[in-house]
Amino acid sequence: MDIPELDVTRWNPYDRNCPTRKLLDRIGDRWTVLIIGTLQHGPQRFGELKTRVDGISQKMLTQTLRGLEEDGLVTRTVTPQIPPRVDYELTDLGRTLIAPLAGLEEWARTHMQQILDARGTTPPSRR
């Protein structure tokens, strides 16, 4: 089967009108990175995500999940029971983000001390 080549030249995130810019804003958002990192381990309920992504508000979690669902990166499955069960899971497309975002997370862990030194700060856990 022949796979058509993608015309990546038509997507230019440096052009303010290109939709890739909005997508990069979403993918680069701290909550998106953390939610995808959590969902890489399998489906999660809303409450589980809220617990695992420390510090995220209910409103921000809802907004982020809706955006990820809108972009086809996450699916929302409602199981009819009382109370209704809602699970969130990465789609195949969403799973393609695991490796690049894991690389970004690893970079942050590796270089955090250098960044803190450049800022002249100490992490709260070391004060």
From TrEMBL:
<dbReference type="GO" id="GO:0003677">
    <property type="term" value="F:DNA binding"/>
</dbReference>
<dbReference type="InterPro" id="IPR002577">
    <property type="entry name" value="HTH_HxlR"/>
</dbReference>
<protein>
    <submittedName>
        <fullName>Transcriptional regulator, HxlR family</fullName>
    </submittedName>
</protein>
<dbReference type="InterPro" id="IPR011991">
    <property type="entry name" value="ArsR-like_HTH"/>
</dbReference>
<keyword id="KW-0805">Transcription regulation</keyword>
<keyword id="KW-0238">DNA-binding</keyword>
<dbReference type="InterPro" id="IPR036388">
    <property type="entry name" value="WH-like_DNA-bd_sf"/>
</dbReference>
<feature type="domain" description="HTH hxlR-type">
    <location>
        <begin position="18"/>
        <end position="116"/>
    </location>
</feature>
<dbReference type="Pfam" id="PF01638">
    <property type="entry name" value="HxlR"/>
</dbReference>
<dbReference type="InterPro" id="IPR036390">
    <property type="entry name" value="WH_DNA-bd_sf"/>
</dbReference>
<keyword id="KW-0804">Transcription</keyword>
